[in-house]
Write the structure tokens for this entry.
Amino acid sequence: MGGAVRARTVIGVVVAGAALVACSGPRAVEAELTVRGATVAVYVADSEAERSSGLQGLDLDGAAGGMLFVWPSADVRSFAIKRVDYPLDVIWISGDGHVLGVSSLAPEGPERAVSPGATTSVLEVPAGWAARHGVAEGDPVWVRRR
């Protein structure tokens, strides 16, 4: 009798684990960010785990064109590319919703980009996106959650 209960428990754990893996498949686009009239669909990283993994394993030529990192309070932030195979623009956004500046990161570079001031949000997009859309310091940024 005890073996049957244990077997059902193990099967239940395996099935629950498989369901969790199935549900954690491709990320859904969670918001749209607009700056200078250009709108980009973004994944949102608003937990420590999501901010830590960032764009690792995600492809930006699909539904999303970037990732928006969000913190509950403003601070000077630094970013580096970890396990991402393409260069990025890093757009630093202030707590009042304005661009603080734009930095670039390359996958082969060991450097880190540091925000020019306290920021509550950071947008990572493929390199060249900010220049193509004329994104500059002081531009207002709008975010619409889906």
